[in-house]
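Re: the pair you flagged

First of the two:
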Amino acid sequence: MATQLRPEIETFITRMVERHGFEESDLKNIFNKTRFQPAIISAISRPSTSKPWHEYRPNFVNSKRIRDGVTFWNNNSRTLERASKKFGVPEEIITAVIGVETFYGTRTGRHRVLDALTTLAFNYPRRAEFFRDELEQYLLLTREQGTSTFSIKGSYAGAIGIPQFMPSSYRNYAVDFDNDGKIDLSGNAADSIGSVANYLTAHGWEVDGPVAARAHISGDKPDQALVKGYKPLHTMEKMRKLGITPLIDVPSNRQAMLIELKNDSEMEYWVGFNNFYVITRYNRSFRYAMSVHQLSEEIRAARNNKDAL
């Protein structure tokens, strides 16, 4: 016998019926079988991106992830090359995103996505609106794909598959990159590679543009370059006047941001450019974007060294 649903879930169901033509009885049946997961609330309340850089980095930029990244690249070299040519995103960046997200598809999540999104949509007030929107997108996605709403597993935040796309990103940016007539991010590396590249391009990836560079700090004005948010808002000319000098040659009119990363006993300074900002659109964290950048460079270097042997 069906139990009485919470009023806010009833309201959500009404919205789905009115907006998208779902059957009320179908949705009530689904939500009566959905399980609240307290562990999800606990996990999202202490994300790994909150760790200081010297603790965060070794989780993602390490010998195993570099070595497995070279293997992933070698196993998918033709697909990565094709994606890079089509979308303009380097192979190593696509590889590193997948490496950071799911260890190259080996850790895609164990939670039912329906449970995760429902838990967060109705039991996590701080971001309830975001997760209700994603729950809406998930129900639309499974209807479009003809997939059971209970069958897809993902992260505690409801991210799906090898590239960990939220349902809205899945619907908007996932592509059928192997042209088999369907999009599968849970088990298809080609679709995942093409989708990551498409996502980054759609969010403004600059072909052949720099990502980030170490910086030397002098004087007492660098804090004036620290701004809230993630966009590169200052020209390098202004950065240099504030005592911020990148350790690579950068045109004076290029927009940049100052990045502070806390190490054990000191700050590490970088300048980030447009492509660094684009990576933060995948996950809004400087530490995340920097780990993708550094892992990508390590993977390319390791692969080139193997090629040279």
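Second of the two:
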Amino acid sequence: MAVHDLLDRPLRDLRVSVTDRCNFRCTYCMPKEVFGKSFRFLPREELLSFEEIARLARIMTGLGVEKIRLTGGEPLLRRDLEKLVAMLAPLGLDLTLTTNGSLLAEKAHALHAAGLRRLTVSLDSLDDETFRTMNDVEFPVAQVLDGVEAALAAGFTPIKINMVVKRDVNERSIVGMARHFSGRDFNLRFIEFMDVGNTNGWRMADVVPAAEIIETLATEMPLQPLAARYRGEVARRFRHQNGGGEIGVIASVTQPFCRDCTRLRVSSDGRLYTCLFAGHGHDLRSLLRSTSEDDMIAEEIRAVWQNREDRFSELRGLQTTPQPKVEMSRIGG
């Protein structure tokens, strides 16, 4: 990738993790062997405050950011999250949130009333046993589905559903998920199992390639490809030919899209990362707490963006030694 390819990418998408805590211990990003009961999560004072996040969001709009996604950990574990939504909604950005749905039934109406209009729910299977295998939880998948229905009732539409597909674990759920979420206001996304963080025991053999996922779906239901809506859109999208909903695949392992990535990520403790697979971040929390000059912070962010050289997914197969990466619980997806 040439330097000008990196510099030419616009910054349009900011992903902010509001907490590193989660009530899932999923095989994807928070395996229970590491994130068990004795794991030490961040003290509250180390997290960015709502006021700091809102200030950062305002600064980012001046750098071209059009979209903010609130993530975690599990963002709905952050107390009074609807207050942050109410602070961000007046900025007029595309404001969205990614959740595992476990607390969505009790939170959906308050979030929508505060100004949130889009939701992404992570759900890896409709089968209880498979769901528990992927997420190590003690509640049924019905609790997540109840949350999805509550979100629909609150006015969220369409709702995006993300399914991470792992070989020999939940690939048999692909067709069932597509059938369940077709014909209604859902956009279903199948995501290749990725080597996020350092703890999920990722192997290439665990990846079900996006091409295989599409082939599996095509044998059961007719799909029609859709054109990309903007540069940097990571999902290859399809619509059901019989109408109702949308399906997409995200192939960051088998078809990397580094050169079109337009995302910055901010961890729950205020570190700026230019890649989901980055090994280190840039300290924004200290800047936010030490200066009242927004222009100074904007220049720091601009310099980081213009000097990024992230190509992890493109170089994955060429690496001979493991590279340290920030845990996904700190920066979300």
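The domain at 3-331 is CATH 3.20.20.70 (TIM Barrel).

-B.
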